[in-house]
Amino acid sequence: MAVRFATTFLVEWLRIALQTRYVRHLQTDAFGSALRAEVSYFDEEGSDDILNAIVGNPESRLYRPTSPSSGASRISTRHPM
């Protein structure tokens, strides 16, 4: 019984630690991409959507591939997996 409890506790603790680090990585990556983006991107997307993606829900990510015809730089963050 004690081994089962300890194992369950350890697995859950590791899961939460990994999830926290992953979310922090997504937020840092999105913030860095926002700093490197061109001003035209903020004009097109709106700063409130960008801020929401960085702070509120990093799993949703702002990712749209840039088409070759449009010269605008997009916030494009790659999935680490």
TrEMBL record:
Organism encoding this protein = Natronococcus jeotgali DSM 18795
Q: Which InterPro entries match?
A: ABC1_TM_sf
Polar residues bias located where?
A: 66-75
Transmembrane domains' residue ranges: none
**GO MF entries:** ATP binding
Can you tell me which residues the record assigns to a coiled coil? none
Q: Where is this region: Disordered?
A: 61-81
Protein name (record): ABC-type multidrug/lipid transport system,permease and ATP-binding protein
**Gene Ontology cellular component terms for the protein in this record:** membrane
Annotated keywords? ATP-binding, Membrane, Nucleotide-binding, Transmembrane, Transmembrane helix
Superkingdom assignment: Archaea
